[in-house]
């Protein structure tokens, strides 16, 4: 071996060592499947297009897709109080990182409203990241006789069952909040559920329902004087609507923002989870997505993977207890 060859051997060994270290550092999914992602990712939004969650998640998908090099395709799959889409992902999606869904509190609650639960919110999903929540509130049409929340409650107390309100579905967070309010005030309102907040607002504007109690799809109509907000459900008054009282101010020990995130089917590789978490976190923190959240007054509720999984497990037990306390059932 000449001097030139002897000098090359240590260099070759160093390259082999570095190559081996890099291989060890790569996520298992990269070794098993090659580069992830190598095709489009589907993100199921369980509401009709145009609502606040749909717009926010489309923004996340667009930003994440550009960063990751593959499109994130939004598929709207509404129904069953916002649980049809997540349930389809849990039951039919492959745990390869190419089928994801919005995870929200109704998915944690609805199984316990059934005689025989059809899914386990903790065990049947791989929870990836917590993102944001909603601005909830109640609004009536501008020509409604109700100028204030107390006027509405007084009418409901004097006319049991006559006043109608709409939400985005049975067993949703906003429906549950309204059940809690009725229980506290001893009033009876008639619930008219729709598949999404857009449809709910349209029904109120058309005079088919008296009041919408849902996420902030109603906000632009309040701003242009087509609707009137009677309450918001945040901890403090909303800057866009400084004259609208919170539920706490109205005498209820109730703050509702319903934080949500993104999950996939159970059994996902943790390397893929890390990739998805990181790219969606970056998207969440961009000025573009911040502007979308600000437009709908959606609070930032970022949770990393481990924190979000702990939140899901704890909140599932809370929702189960709440359903039993209010005796809510989908079985009639």
In short:
Belongs to the UPF0065 (bug) family. This is Tripartite tricarboxylate transporter substrate binding protein. This protein has 2 domains: 32-134 and 258-326, D-Maltodextrin-Binding Protein, domain 2 (3-Layer(aba) Sandwich); 136-232, Periplasmic binding protein-like II (D-Maltodextrin-Binding Protein, domain 2).
Estimate nothing, just give the exact number of structural domains. 2
Q: Spans with pLDDT under 50 lasting ≥5 residues?
A: 1-33
CATH architecture of the largest domain: 3-Layer(aba) Sandwich
What top-tier CATH class of the largest domain fits best? Alpha Beta
How many strand units? 11
Which of globular, elongated, flat, extended, rod-shaped describes the shape?
globular
Question: What summary fits the major beta sheet?
Answer: 6 strands, mixed
Helices, by number, come to 12
Strand content: 15-25%
Query: How do the helices and strands follow one another from N- to C-terminus?
Result: HHEHEHEHEEHEHEHEHEEHHEH
Report mean pLDDT, rounded to a whole number.
Answer: 89
Percent range for helical residues? 40-55%
Strand order of the largest sheet: 2-1-3-10-4-11
- Class from secondary-structure proportions: alpha/beta
* CATH topology title of the largest domain: D-Maltodextrin-Binding Protein, domain 2
- Structural Rg: 24 Å
Tell me the name of the CATH homologous superfamily of the largest domain.
Bordetella uptake gene, domain 1
Describe the structure in your own words.
This is Tripartite tricarboxylate transporter substrate binding protein. Residues 1-30 form the signal peptide. InterPro entries: BUG (IPR005064), Bug_dom1 (IPR042100). 43% of the residues lie in helices and 17% in strands. It contains twelve helices and eleven strands. Strand 1 (41-45), helix 3 (52-68) and strand 2 (72-76) form a beta-alpha-beta unit. Helix 3 (52-68) packs across helix 10. The longest helix has 23 residues, at 3-25. It is globular and about 65 Å long. Mean pLDDT is 89; it is low at 1-33.
């Amino acid at each position: 071996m000449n001097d030139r060859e002897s000098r090359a051997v240590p260099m070759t060994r160093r390259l082999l060592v570095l190559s081996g270290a890099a291989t060890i550092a790569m996520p298992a999914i990269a070794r098993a499947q090659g580069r992830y992602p190598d095709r489009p990712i589907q993100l199921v939004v369980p509401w009709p297009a145009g609502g606040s969650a749909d717009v926010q998640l489309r923004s996340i998908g667009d930003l994440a897709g550009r960063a990751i090099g593959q499109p994130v395709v939004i598929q709207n799959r509404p129904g069953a109080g916002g649980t049809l889409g997540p349930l389809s992902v849990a039951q039919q999606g492959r745990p390869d990182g190419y089928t994801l869904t919005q995870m929200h509190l109704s998915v944690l609650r609805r199984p316990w409203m059934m005689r025989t639960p059809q899914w386990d919110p903790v065990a049947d999903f791989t929870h990836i990241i917590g993102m944001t929540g909603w601005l909830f509130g109640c609004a009536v049409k501008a020509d409604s006789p109700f100028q204030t929340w107390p006027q509405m409650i007084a009418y409901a107390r004097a006319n049991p069952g006559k006043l109608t309100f709409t939400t985005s579905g049975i067993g949703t967070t906003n429906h549950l909040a309204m059940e809690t309010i009725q229980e506290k005030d001893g009033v009876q309102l008639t619930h008219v559920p729709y598949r999404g907040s857009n449809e709910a607002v349209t029904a109120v504007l058309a005079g088919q329902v008296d009041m919408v109690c849902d996420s902030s799809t109603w906000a632009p109509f309040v701003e242009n004087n087509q609707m009137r907000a009677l309450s918001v459900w945040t901890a403090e008054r909303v800057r866009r609507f400084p004259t609208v009282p919170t539920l706490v101010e109205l005498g209820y020990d109730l703050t509702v923002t319903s934080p949500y995130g993104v999950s996939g089917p159970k059994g996902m590789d943790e390397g893929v989870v890390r990739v998805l978490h990181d790219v969606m976190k970056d998207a969440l923190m961009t000025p573009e997505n911040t502007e979308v959240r600000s437009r709908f007054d959606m609070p930032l509720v970022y949770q990393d993977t481990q924190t979000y999984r702990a939140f899901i497990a704890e909140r599932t037990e809370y929702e189960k207890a709440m359903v039993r306390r209010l005796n809510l059932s989908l079985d009639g």
